[in-house]
Design brief:
Layout (H helix, E strand, L loop, with lengths): L1 E4 L5 E12 L3 H11 L5 E4 L13 E2 L1 H10 L2 H7 L2 E3 L1 E3 L3 E2 H4 L6 E3 L2 H14 L3 E3 L3 E6 L5 E6 L2 E12 L6 H5 L5 E2 L4 E9 L7 E7 L4 E9 L2 E9 L12 H10 L11 E2 L4 E4 L3 E2 L4 E2 L2 E3 L5 E2 L7 H18 L3 H31 L3 H16 L7 H4 L7 H7 L4
Helix pairs in contact: 1-5, 1-8, 2-8, 8-9, 9-10
Amino acid sequence: MHHITNGHGDKTTIMQYDLAIVGGGIAGTSLARALAVHGARVVIVEHQSVFRDRIHGEVTHPWGVAETIALGIYEPLVDSCGHETRWVAAPPRDLVATTPWKVGCLNFYHPDMQQKLLDLAVEAGAELRRPAEVVGVETGDRPALLVRSISGTERINARLVIGADGRNSRVRALAGFQVRRDPDCSMIAGALYAGLKHPEDTFRSYRNPSNQQHGVIIPIGHDRFRAYFIFHCGTHAPLSGSKDAAAFVAGCGTAGGSIEWFDGAERIGPLATFNAADRWVDHPYSDGVVLIGDAAASSDPSFGGGLSLTLRDVRVLRDCLIADEDWPGAATCYAREHDRYYGSLHRYHDWARELFFQRGPEAEAKRAIALPKLAEDPSRRPDVLALGPDAPGDEAARRRFFGLD
């Protein structure tokens, strides 16, 4: 560590690290812990002084739970804030009995999960700057962050800078990555409830093909449930705040759920709506900067794969960095792998959007062919819940899903 002074007499502290990670969410903290336990010098930069409840994804599908096991965070999460759901409703499915890893979904209240993983990373040896703001990113052979906090301005040099700061990533923008985006399709409204009339051991996803609406209920433990109402862009007004609480419940009903689930329940978190379109970067490594989690690819939350995708990013990047001392080469390897598995997941979601959410006569004709066959044989649908991007996704799988075989 040393100091430099600018022309105004202000001091900037310069620090040296292996990894400078921006973002104290599941992506940044899981990676920080994973590399710190292998002896890397890691710093996490987190702008929030306290993690707050927002409309977050809070379900990890079985393929993502397998990643938590590989990363060594499964048991700490289960022992603290994690809530396991063994069952899927409609049609009933025992995930423990029918998935390769013999696990169900792992759900949690997002702020508790963030704080637990941040604590684990610090316990493993990662340093923390919190609250702190990234005001600059330098790319190249010796990438660096310029970070501002109440103690002053700090220049952090690192072998790699990691952007793990979410779907609106500041690192991504400052490093010059180009973001791609799907066309508008769905809007997703979410809220947190206590006392929902719904089993706490069951994850539920339901849809109404007649109006292209969709709903999800995720138990997160202690009699709390995150509920989502998903609708096609332009077909329903966005919902926000207490004034729209009744409309949210009504929407869950028109999406195919039961408004009786909400009888006597209390909304205990914000109600908000946002656009569900995927946003992603092709090849999320460039010039000393790596993107992971939502900064690399924010997957349509209608399908609930975002946390699992993030954990896959962390595990793959960890494995690449441990296996290769040439970290730019390792980061390039990660980016290639990320493009492959995210591309697979994106393809499955495109199929589902095309069948379940598109509108018009052509979409209705597709549903008339496919939906009766899916109802008769649910295995026609790729098992993305269990296998994620590793589910079959070739042309034969597509034709089978659409009932064209």
